[in-house]
Design goal:
Elements: E1 2-7, H1 16-30, E2 34-40, E3 49-52, E4 55-60, H2 66-74, H3 77-82, E5 85-89, H4 91-100, E6 110-114, H5 125-137, E7 140-143, H6 147-152, E8 158-159, E9 182-185, H7 194-207, E10 214-217, H8 223-233, E11 237-241, E12 255-257, H9 261-269, E13 274-277, H10 281-288, E14 297-299, H11 302-314, H12 316-330, H13 335-363
Parallel strand pairs: 1-2, 1-5, 2-4, 5-6, 6-7, 7-8, 9-10, 9-12, 10-11, 12-13, 13-14
Antiparallel strand pairs: 3-4
Helix pairs in contact: 1-13, 7-11, 9-12
Amino acid sequence: MNIIFYVYRYWPKIGGVEKYIHELALALTARGHTVSVVTGSHDNALSESETRDGVTIHRYPALRSPMRCQVHLLRMRQMFADADVIHISDIMMLEHYRRMIGWTLPDKPVFLTRHGMSIEHPVPSRDKKRAARAAKYATAVIDDGHFISKWLESPADAVIAQGLSPAADEIEPVEPTAKLGATFVGRLEWDTGIDAYLDALHILKTEHNKTVPLDVVGHGSLRTELELRANKDKLPIRFLGQRPDAQDHLLPNPVAFVSGRLAIHEALARRRPVIAHYVNPVKRDYLADEPFSPHIMIAANGREIAQAVMTTIENPKQTREMINAGYAYTRQLSWDRTADAYLDIWQEHVADAESRLTLSVTTG
């Protein structure tokens, strides 16, 4: 199949969606499919077109005017017309595709993956309306979490599990080098719970006489504020910034402070107990209603996080059982299985579309 992924950002940018599409594209090219990624150029130094790991990357000028962006994409219209599959990441990009070029290809099957959603609570009605419009336009909708359709009130055609790279069986077991410590991986923003994790460190220090060093991997608007707080409360925190090998920084410490799906999988595969924080009911469902949920500890605030840390210290047998079950779960995850699930959906709907077109031509 000739497959186009239409995404907001892609390599060399690093993020959950970028990694998801990259790994899925690699699994598809390994099967002999032709994969292209059409993405915005958020750096004027990047070339308009290049090939990486067998995937062709086409960049439109995202930093220029919408008209210039549209003119650039319209020049690529034949490439879109020749594709068997146009797959779009997230509702915002589906809307962008429709405005920029989709209107010129009204009969072309278009697929949508909702990688997540805003965790604003209550969920704004505008988000629900946008989801309903997108579902009507898309040939099929795929979610990467069961909570999405519940809160957007818009059903998906399928929920597909993310893969894992490297696979769990390819990761050598490594014992933590520190007896007590944690690693946070994620954006330094309010919705990732980074404030609550610092609350927990303060509670552990002042109420349990436990000084827990923390490595923070990620960046965001709260970094300066967090650094000031760490100094004020004398908390042993290292801010390491964003790292392409963020998952490897989970290894030195015995506990993982992570609340993103991909980071949770990576921590479980590395045999680290996961303590995940939620800021509201939407994020709670993100953590509590998924296949990985039985294998992690979730917490609503710093005090619950601190108690979870104490549980890992005081109940080593229970912690080891949770670690082993979490690792066993991640052994089921692979990008090959994810690619197979996507191919099943694409082939089914593309075949249906071709049948309808043939029938229309014949009866016409």
